[in-house]
Design brief:
The complex is a heterodimer of chains A (116) and B (108).
Chain A lengths: L3 E4 L2 E4 L5 E7 L4 E9 L6 E7 L5 E2 L8 E7 L2 E6 L8 E9 L7 E2 L3 E5 L1
Chain B lengths: L3 E3 L4 E4 L4 E7 L6 E7 L6 E6 L3 E5 L2 E6 L4 E6 L8 E8 L3 E3 L3 E6 L1
Parallel strand pairs in B: 2-11
Antiparallel strand pairs in B: 1-3, 3-8, 4-5, 4-9, 6-7, 7-8, 9-10, 9-11
Classes of the chains: A mainly beta (116), B mainly beta (108).
């Protein structure tokens, strides 16, 4: 199947700093990428939909100024958690859909963020 | 009412048993149905993908969709300890909607 690379796989940072997470589609072009967060023993919660070359669409309750999303190319989307706080500690996962419009989504391996 | 309902478990079965995982959904507009497997601290992995009502088989896995009752199932035959994971059902309309996931443990 298609490969989505997510980096880093884990990060520890101090409160107040910003953290950038990268999501790359390695063998296909992705017009749309999705960012999820997942708390322990819970399902994935969609944070935002990222479309190449346009502004991201955020789900209700997700602060767009705190979770900055950039989808500058068909193979790369980034999520920046700005001024991170301990409550932002979570597992963040990206997924990508290819340009052919297939309904299948392929997921990155996730990033565990711990804010001290 | 949640769009996709899934029993969170946990579910424990002995090795070799047949596992049945189920979800219900509320929106008849959903057309695509998927099952993902997620190991701890990993991203979900697509297991099965179906479009219409009926069965789809892939090795030990069978996905079943009944659109008339809005019911989707995943069966695992000859279950192995390596099948221990969280299984998420998902449907697609404008966006992907997940069930809460079922934690499955296969006991050797």
């Amino acid at each position: 199947g298609a490969v989505v690379s997510q980096h880093p796989s884990w990060v520890i940072c101090k409160s107040g700093t910003s953290v950038k997470i990268e999501c790359r589609s390695l063998d296909f072009q992705a017009t749309t990428m999705f960012w999820y967060r997942q708390f322990p023993k819970q399902s994935l919660m969609l944070m935002a939909t990222s479309n190449e070359g346009s502004k991201a669409t955020y789900e209700q309750g997700v602060e767009k100024d705190k979770f900055l999303i950039n989808h500058a190319s068909l193979t790369l989307s980034t999520l920046t958690v700005t001024s991170a706080h301990p409550e932002d500690s979570s597992f963040y996962i990206c997924s990508a859909r290819d340009v052919q419009g297939h309904e299948k989504l392929f997921f990155g391996s996730g990033t565990q963020l711990s804010v001290l | 009412q949640k769009e996709v309902e899934q029993d969170p478990g946990p579910l424990s079965v002995p090795e070799g048993a047949i596992v049945s995982l189920n979800c219900t959904y509320s929106n008849s507009a959903f057309q695509y149905f998927m099952w993902y497997r997620q190991y701890s601290r990993k991203g979900p992995e697509l297991l099965m993908y179906t479009y219409s009502s009926g069965n789809k088989e892939d090795g030990r896995f069978t996905a079943q969709v009944d659109k008339s009752s809005k019911y989707i199932s995943l069966f695992i035959r000859d279950s192995q300890p390596s099948d221990s994971a969280t299984y998420l059902c998902a449907t697609v309309n404008e966006k992907l909607t997940f069930g809460t996931g079922t934690r499955l443990t296969i006991i050797p």
